[in-house]
Specification:
It comes from Oceanipulchritudo coccoides. By secondary structure, this protein is α/β, with parallel strands linked by helices. It folds into two domains: about 270 residues, NADP-dependent oxidoreductase domain (TIM Barrel); about 110 residues, no CATH class. The protein is built from 16 helices and ten strands. The two termini are about 35 Å apart.
Length: about 400
């Protein structure tokens, strides 16, 4: 395993982390007596394999069903001082609720403290306010740190670049403290948050990439074309290397569901050297060439279409994300991934905001959408494109894993 300094925390962080959202017994918290013993055996075997390969960062969240509770059955059997343990606790308008939930999470985990405490889900301005306002969740987390319940405080986010950068830049007036690390999305198919990584690096924050293999393209079941374009690497190995060649990125989450889920990721380790750019260069060229062949120039960057924030788009249609998923399907045959993500729209709140381009969403605001599209370089055809994408990708209503 290779390790990197996790920003100003000074922790020696493995370049892969063992995420805890896929090996637990379901997405509803439940008493230990109701947990299937087979899932506990699998969880412990997964943690053992993680530790065998040098991945000592175990990361979970209060919202991951019974993950904390099941980990709490195993942590007392392990050497605590050799582990980096992180949990994330959802923000609340009432910081006393947040404080109490952290204590309850520690009880579930059977720990006196966690190394990393995450403010889970600074996804919009409202939740940013819950975190940083006077008496808010960040102040509650600072209190927990003073009480020895956590060592470092960070945040996770699925938010916009603007919201993320505000959280990165925040300094608490009374203490002069700011957030120590960030969990965010950034990988080959989604690079919009590059400026956030640069801002976090400038403040010497730890940088943790969320779900690069799942949200980053369901690469564990990538289409044959993507395998061909990424040769000689597996698409997951390519994506890992693409991320980790950036030294300011410290760790990638592996949401392992079973002990074998680490193996393809480990293949990247021999390539994390001076030869990595030469290995990546032809793959990147093939991917870019294919993308440019299949996607019109004016649509290639969905985040540069000139769109207003989602809340200001008529019907709150997430046009940028819809165009992105359409482009991936056209360029790389990533239709299954597009369906996986597209059908979350309208069902995942601020974790994946905005609405689908369905007739029931578009028809009531069609004239307003036509006016918006007409004002953009893409013109009116943009509306037809997102409606065609709905026909391609819509299957059924979907929910986030934690809500299914």
């Amino acid at each position: 395993m290779q390790y990197r300094r996790f920003g100003r925390t000074g922790l020696s962080m493995p370049v892969f982390s063992c995420g805890g959202m896929r090996y637990q017994d379901g997405w509803e918290d439940k008493p230990l007596s109701e947990i299937d013993p087979k899932t506990q055996v699998n969880l412990e075997a997964t943690i053992n394999r993680s530790l065998e390969v040098g991945i000592n960062h175990i990361e979970t969240a209060r919202g991951y069903g019974c993950s904390e509770r099941q980990l709490g059955q195993y942590f007392p059997k392990l050497e605590r001082d050799k582990l980096i343990i992180q949990t994330k606790v959802g923000l609340d308008a009432d910081s006393d609720v947040f404080y109490a939930n952290v204590l309850d999470s520690l009880d579930r985990l059977q720990l006196e403290y966690v190394d990393l405490l995450g403010l889970h889900g600074i996804n919009n301005e409202e939740k940013l306010g819950w975190a940083i306002r006077p008496g808010g969740c960040f102040e509650a987390a600072q209190r927990l740190r003073r009480e020895g319940k956590c060592r470092f405080i960070g945040f996770s986010t699925h938010g916009s670049v603007e919201v993320i950068n505000k959280a990165i830049a925040y300094t608490e007036p009374k203490s002069g403290e700011s957030l120590d690390y960030i969990n965010l999305h950034w990988y080959y198919i989604y690079q919009e948050t590059r400026s956030c990584i640069e801002a976090a690096t400038a403040r010497d924050m730890g940088i943790f990439i969320i779900s690069p293999s799942d949200k980053g393209g369901q690469l564990y079941k990538a289409p044959p074309l993507l395998h061909e374009l990424c040769e000689p690497l597996h698409p997951m190995t390519f994506n890992d290397l693409f991320c980790l060649i950036n030294k300011e990125i410290h760790t990638l989450s592996i949401g392992a569901a079973r002990p074998s889920d680490f193996e393809e990721h480990l293949d990247v380790l021999p390539h994390l050297n001076a030869d990595a750019p030469a290995l990546l260069r032809p793959i990147l060229k093939r991917l870019q060439t294919r993308y440019e062949e299949k996607v019109e120039p004016e649509l290639r960057d969905p985040w540069a279409l000139g769109l207003p924030p989602i809340k200001d788009i008529p019907g709150q249609i997430n046009i940028g994300r819809i165009v992105q998923l359409r482009n991936l399907a056209r360029a790389y045959d990533m239709t299954d991934y597009g369906k996986f993500r597209y059908n979350l729209l309208g069902n995942a709140a601020d974790w994946f905001p905005g609405q689908k381009a369905s007739p029931e969403n578009i028809d009531p605001v069609r004239s307003e959408l036509e006016a918006l599209c007409s004002s953009l370089p893409t013109g009116k055809k943009l509306l037809s494109i997102i409606e065609e994408t709905h026909e391609l990708l819509f299957e059924k209503e979907a929910k986030r894993l934690s809500e299914s």
